[in-house]
Design brief:
This protein is mainly alpha-helical and 196 residues long. 56% of the residues lie in helices and 0% in strands. It is elongated and about 85 Å long. The mean pLDDT is 78.
């Protein structure tokens, strides 16, 4: 149960290792949870091996060329669980100061760009506000949340504005956007063919 809690806190799926610190989590907490995750995984492996080796019959031990008395004394999951609980109660899952300082000095990830209004998106794309409104009405530009647009759409809006300036109508542009990913239209992925 504790392993599942630590997994959730670290944002780890399945048996994947914790590689990236989740946004908003302090380095100290992340490093402590990561150390605890490794200890719990080792404990889980010990329980698994003890269960597997404990259930094996004598024929299987003979096939593996191993002796039960040589292996089982080293697999003591109950003792390891006691050690883990004592370590956790004593607050031993804390990162080393040098490791904490190293991670704190690492450059931070850039914050995601804030969504733009339609007018700001049109300005970023270099097209008129009317062109952006027409593209939205034609169904070629959709807001992400509310009436806000992600900044990456500025490139798409600039392309739509260029196609409109070249004389294409909105229905023609919409037809191109629908067919450009169909088989046989690979040559139209970036721009519509002139004879289409």
């Amino acid at each position: 149960r504790r392993l599942a809690t630590v997994r959730r806190a670290l944002g780890v799926v399945g048996d994947a290792r914790p590689r990236e610190k989740p946004a908003g989590m302090h380095w100290r907490r992340w490093l402590a949870l990561r150390d605890e995750w490794y200890a719990l995984r080792e404990l889980e492996d010990t329980w698994l091996l003890r269960g597997m080796y404990g259930c094996m019959g004598d024929e299987m031990w003979a096939q593996l060329s191993m002796e039960r008395a040589e292996v089982l004394p080293y697999l003591k999951p109950a003792e390891e669980m006691r050690r883990y609980r004592a370590r956790r109660a004593a607050g031993k899952y804390h990162p080393e100061p040098w490791l904490l300082a190293f991670y704190r000095r690492r450059p931070r990830r850039a914050a995601p760009a804030k969504p733009l209004t339609l007018g700001k998106l049109a300005t970023a794309a270099g097209v008129s506000h009317d062109c952006a409104r027409e593209a939205r009405r034609a169904g070629l530009l959709r807001p992400d949340n509310g009436r806000r647009y992600r900044p990456k759409l500025a490139g798409w809006l600039a392309k739509l504005g260029r196609l409109r300036a070249e004389g294409m109508t909105w229905p023609e542009i919409r037809a191109w956007t629908r067919r450009r990913w169909l088989p046989g239209h690979e040559h139209e992925r970036r721009a519509p063919a002139l004879n289409a």
